[in-house]
Specification:
5-stranded mixed sheet, 10 helices, 2 domains, alpha+beta, Arc Repressor Mutant, subunit A, Trna Endonuclease, Chain: A, domain 1, 10 strands, 294 residues
Length: 294
């Protein structure tokens, strides 16, 4: 398996739409990716191929992210909130066409969307507006680049450093945790409580695995963690990794007790963004907003 076998973002447009339809018309990125890998006959090995040691990001998942953005710009998908994608009426119409016609329709929609972006950019430049401190709105591709930067930083941590990072992040979610394991420990790293209401908490066990994207967390590791968490009396478990989980690992996490919440690299990045952990949120200006006052 090499990079040449990975489909381009253009080749992923139809698989993305098919996956969202198969999921009932909406889905989160991980569900969409899993459905595509299974439905299109891709191997899980393909998802582990990265850009290289200095850019530890899955090429397939990276292209899927940009392909989803393409679909939104074309109007066949919409994202009412971050992390949730819905097919539009236009998208359903495209999916009602024969495959070759559907692909050509998407190609035309892409050309139209790119032309509209170029015209919008030209109009904004022609205004000659200078924003204070050069604060401008980010384009769609820039909005995703922070994930790569975050993962690079996390992969640069030692296993012990990553464990301490995870503890800090979960503490920002009001969990009270103490360390139980050591570097290289295969069992529980942290144990404590997580609030489920203003007056109730549950006991949670946490394991942090700083893995390269080429190494997925499998069923055996999840099952072992469940056994360790159960032995310590934990009601729930949280397994955090910088890579991803195999399908069998996700099934095991839900089919056995205690239930394990799996946090892969993508979800970890979302949590960091939500809690502003290691990420600085800068103000941006939305020029389109002011159009309503003209």
């Amino acid at each position: 398996m090499d990079r040449a076998n990975i489909p381009s973002r253009r080749d992923l447009w139809l698989p993305i739409l098919r996956a969202v339809v198969a999921l009932g018309g909406s889905g989160i990125p991980r569900e969409i990716a899993d459905t595509i890998i299974e439905g299109e006959g891709f191997s899980e090995e393909m998802a582990t191929i990265t850009y290289g040691e200095h850019n530890p990001v899955s090429i397939l998942h990276d292209r899927l992210g940009f392909a989803r953005i393409d679909c939104r710009l074309m109007g066949v998908l919409e994202s009412p909130r971050r992390g949730l994608w819905l097919i539009t009426e236009l998208g359903r119409g495209v999916m009602g066409l024969p495959e070759l016609d559907a692909q050509e329709c998407l190609n035309q929609l892409d050309r139209t969307a790119k032309k509209a972006q170029r015209e919008k950019s030209h109009r904004e430049k022609s205004k000659g507006d200078v924003l204070t401190e050069e604060v401008t709105a980010l384009d769609d591709s820039d909005q995703e680049s922070w994930r790569e930067d975050l993962l690079k930083c996390l992969h640069g941590l030692t296993p012990d450093g990553f464990e301490r990072f995870v503890r800090h992040l979960l503490r920002s979610l009001n969990m009270e945790l103490k360390r139980t394991g050591g570097v290289g420990d295969q069992g529980i790293d942290l144990i404590g409580t997580a609030p489920i209401s203003p007056v109730l908490t549950v006991t949670v066990a946490v394991q942090a695995k700083r893995y390269a994207p080429s190494v997925s967390v499998g069923r055996a590791e999840v099952a072992l963690f469940q056994a360790d968490a159960s032995a310590r009396g934990a009601e729930y478990g949280i397994l955090v990794t910088t890579s991803r989980f195999t399908r069998s690992a996700r099934e095991t996490a839900q089919d056995r007790r205690p239930t394990i919440t799996l946090i892969d690299g993508e979800r970890l990045a979302d949590l960091c963004l939500d809690e502003e952990v290691g990420i600085v949120i800068r103000p941006v200006v939305d020029p389109d907003f002011f159009g309503r006052f003209e």
